[in-house]
């Protein structure tokens, strides 16, 4: 009985809407102006649909009044069919060649009606929306559709096959090609009001159901008596019609020197006509019903804009932006006015009829009073049971969610710790992994690049494989155990018939951790140094003596001398000077530094002094030993030695880089575990949410039933 529960509220809302819709102020509603009519139409259809449901549901309570209820249903069906045909209608009037057809085309953003120089509309043309994909015509004399191209012959005053002045041509234009037509707006073009004296028949046949009238005037002249006479007749036949005045062809008037005075004259004359003569609005509001536009410019601009083309300059006269803006303002005011007016004229009587039917149904439902009380007690008990079950389910789900969050957090931290420890261990064993790589080594650049590329892959695969052996199996077992625990705990708080479905929600695939070490990019900056370096060369000795931080490159005697003066002289001699036994050596070395600082000849003198002091035999023996050691190291610097040096350098470089991503890798692995467990728990909770929503819907359904029963009881008690 869900339909009955809304009837009282619908009555009140309908009454408020009816009163508010009679106020046709100039302020813009927050919703789209034309949407007001569409929404009101939808609203009143919903009201009658609810009443129809109300009547249908009443059959189960009042079987003896079935004929009465059936009568209500027939009335509601008839009103619903009428509502489906209701639309917003606007009629355009004015003297011949004032641009009525051009105004309509500009509003529809398409050249639907024939217009322009040499064309005069001879009969009424109504443009309305159609669900068809193709446009077609309908005339009064036949229901057979005609081609849209026939409009030029049937409606033109110059055509020999034109229809009579009071005839109506209906243009059914596809709704998907025009916004106004989609919003249930019907636009009616008319012949010039100066071509016939029979204006009364026009009003009777075409204007009594109009929501808005638009007087299209020529801005090059003031309002004529013919135009005023027609709208006086309209005002006498209709109560307070909604009238807009368009001063068309204002682009021509813009050429006048006294344009402001001309505009003020038109504005005062038009507002006096609306407020003082017709008395359809006050003077202040009348100013909002007069607009100075150029329909020709608006049509050309909109048609070209919709096609993505620029409007030629020759079409637009100076000041066209203001006229286009004025035309848009007219449309906004027009849409708001027609929407409010149509809601009032089309739906007010239907709303009153709905209230009458609803009142009659209240009398019928009085007979269901006793039965509703009994059902009300039953529904209250059912609601208590379902609400209790829902609250219990909420508490259990909250507890389970909290426990699972804590468990997932602990597991994530444990996985991060395990991966970090394992990766540290593997980095310490990196030399063994690199030593296992046995591809033939060659110092050639191309071969060496391939060697490094495959070494990257070997290290990455080996590290990943070792991490999987040490971590993956333990982590996967823990993840699966946690997923099973989630499912089992959740199954205890859900109905028994959902248990098989819960276990089917567990992932069918085996969870795997991707370590993503990417050694190729990580070690892309590795540069090997496998050139021969003599261990007792001056450079090597100085580096060992001064420490690894003092890396030098000695390419000549002068560079060696400069380095010696900059580093060795001030450090080594200072340490020797502290011992009195070394005074002689300090003197010699100082002399050496002094001489070598002047020239290469000084260096030769120093060598001679040393040879004289130590003897040439010592120098020769020492030189022979030095040369022999050099020859030994040079001969033993084979490809194998280079490979060992290369691997040692690679291990040092890769270890330093891998240590930088330990935290990132362990965090990434823990995130994968967290994501797996969280997604599994989310799928399981989704099933629980479905059960919860089902219970909530059942409670709401019971509430709706209770509300309906209470409403029935209250109404029946009041009417008894």
What would you say this structure looks like, in words?
- 65% of the residues lie in helices and 7% in strands.
- α2 runs parallel beside α13.
- The N terminus is likely disordered.
- The protein has 720 residues and is of the alpha/beta class.
- The longest helix is centred in the middle third of the chain and has 60 residues.
- It is built from 25 helices and nine strands.
- Strands 4-3-5-2-6-1-7-8-9 form a nine-stranded mixed sheet, sandwiched between helices.
- Among the domains are: 232 residues, 3-Layer(aba) Sandwich (Rossmann fold), CATH 3.40.50; 201 residues, no CATH class.
- It is elongated and about 145 Å long.
- The protein starts with 6 loop residues before the first helix and ends with a helix.
Based on the model shown, name its key terms.
P-loop_NTPase, elongated, Rossmann fold, alpha/beta, single chain, 720 residues, mitochondrion, disordered N terminus
Q: Can you tell me the CATH class of the domain at 87-318?
A: Alpha Beta
> N-to-C terminal Cα separation, in Å?
22 Å
CATH superfamily of the domain at 87-318: P-loop containing nucleotide triphosphate hydrolases
Name the overall outline.
Answer: elongated
Task: Give a concise summary.
The chain has helices at residues 7-20, 33-58, 66-85, 100-108, 151-155, 179-182, 199-207, 225-237, 250-253, 259-277, 283-286, 295-306, 320-365, 369-428, 430-436, 445-491, 499-504, 519-522, 538-546, 557-577, 583-596, 600-614, 616-636, 639-660, 662-719, and strands spanning 88-93, 124-130, 136-139, 142-146, 168-174, 185-189, 212-218, 243-248, 290-292. The chain has 720 residues and is of the alpha/beta class.
């Amino acid at each position: 009985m869900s339909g009955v529960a809304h009837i009282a509220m619908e009555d009140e809302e309908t009454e408020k809407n009816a009163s508010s819709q009679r106020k046709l102020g100039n302020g813009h509603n927050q919703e789209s102006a034309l949407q007001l009519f569409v929404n009101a139409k939808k609203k009143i259809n919903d009201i009658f649909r609810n009443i129809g449901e109300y009547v249908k549901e009443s059959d189960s309570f009042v079987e003896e009044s079935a004929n009465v209820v059936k009568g209500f249903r027939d009335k509601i069906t008839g009103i619903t069919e009428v509502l489906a045909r209701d639309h917003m209608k606007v009629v355009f009037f004015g003297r011949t060649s004032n641009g009525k057809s051009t105004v309509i085309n500009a509003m529809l953003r398409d050249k639907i009606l024939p217009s322009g120089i040499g064309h005069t509309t001879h009969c009424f043309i109504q443009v309305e929306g159609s669900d068809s994909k193709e446009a077609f015509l309908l005339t009064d004399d036949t229901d057979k559709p005609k081609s849209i191209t026939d409009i030029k012959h049937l409606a033109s005053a110059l055509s020999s096959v034109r229809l009579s002045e009071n005839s109506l041509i209906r243009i059914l234009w596809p709704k998907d090609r025009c916004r106004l037509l989609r919003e249930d707006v019907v636009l009616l073009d008319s012949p010039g009001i100066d071509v016939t004296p029979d204006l009364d028949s026009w009003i009777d046949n075409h204007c009594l159901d109009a929501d808005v009238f638009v007087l299209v005037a020529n801005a090059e002249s003031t309002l004529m008596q013919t135009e005023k006479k027609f709208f006086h007749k309209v005002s006498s036949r209709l109560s307070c019609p909604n009238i807009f005045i368009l001063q068309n062809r204002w682009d021509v008037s813009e050429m006048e020197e006294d344009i402001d005075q001309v505009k003020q004259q038109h504005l005062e004359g038009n507002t006096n006509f609306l407020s003082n003569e017709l008395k359809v609005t006050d003077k202040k509001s009348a100013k909002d019903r007069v607009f100075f536009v150029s329909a020709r410019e608006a049509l050309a601009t909109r048609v070209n804009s919709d096609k993505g083309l620029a409007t030629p300059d020759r079409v637009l006269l100076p000041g066209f932006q203001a006229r286009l803006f004025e035309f848009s303002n007219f449309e906004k005011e027009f849409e708001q006015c027609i929407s409010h007016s149509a809601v009032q004229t089309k739906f007010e009587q239907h709303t009153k009829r709905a209230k009458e039917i609803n009142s009659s149904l209240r009398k019928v439902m009085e007979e269901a009073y006793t039965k509703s009380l009994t059902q009300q007690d039953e529904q209250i008990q059912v609601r208590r049971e379902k609400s209790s079950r829902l609250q219990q389910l909420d508490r259990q789900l909250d507890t389970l969610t909290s426990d699972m969050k804590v468990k997932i957090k602990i597991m994530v931290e444990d996985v991060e710790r395990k991966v970090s420890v394992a990766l540290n261990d593997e980095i310490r064993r990196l030399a063994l992994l690199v030593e296992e790589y046995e591809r033939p080594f060659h110092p050639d650049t191309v071969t060496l690049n391939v060697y490094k590329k495959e070494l990257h892959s070997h290290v990455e695969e080996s590290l990943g494989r070792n991490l999987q052996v040490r971590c993956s199996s333990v982590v996967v077992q823990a993840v699966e155990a946690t997923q099973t625990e989630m499912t089992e705990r959740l199954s205890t708080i859900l109905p028994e018939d959902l248990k098989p479905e819960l276990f089917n929600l567990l992932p069918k695939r085996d969870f795997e951790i991707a370590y993503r070490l990417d050694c190729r990019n990580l070690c892309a900056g590795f540069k090997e140094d496998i050139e021969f370096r003599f261990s007792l060369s001056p450079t090597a000795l100085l580096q060992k003596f001064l420490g690894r931080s003092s890396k030098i490159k000695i390419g000549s005697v002068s560079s060696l001398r400069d380095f010696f003066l900059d580093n060795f002289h001030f450090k080594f001699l200072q340490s020797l000077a502290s011992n009195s036994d070394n005074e002689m050596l300090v003197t010699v070395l100082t002399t050496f530094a002094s001489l070598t600082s002047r020239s290469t000849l000084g260096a030769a003198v120093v060598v001679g002094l040393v040879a004289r002091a130590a003897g040439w035999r010592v120098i020769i023996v020492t030189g022979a030993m030095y040369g022999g050691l050099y020859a030994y190291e040079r001969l033993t610097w084979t490809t194998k030695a280079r490979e060992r040096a290369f691997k040692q350098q690679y291990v040092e470089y890769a270890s330093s880089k891998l240590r930088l991503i330990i935290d990132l890798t362990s965090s990434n692995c823990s995130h994968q575990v967290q994501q797996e467990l969280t997604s599994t728990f989310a799928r399981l909770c989704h099933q629980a949410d479905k059960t919860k929503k089902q219970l909530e819907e059942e409670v709401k359904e019971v509430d709706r039933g209770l509300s309906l029963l209470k409403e029935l009881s209250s109404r029946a008690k009041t009417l008894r």
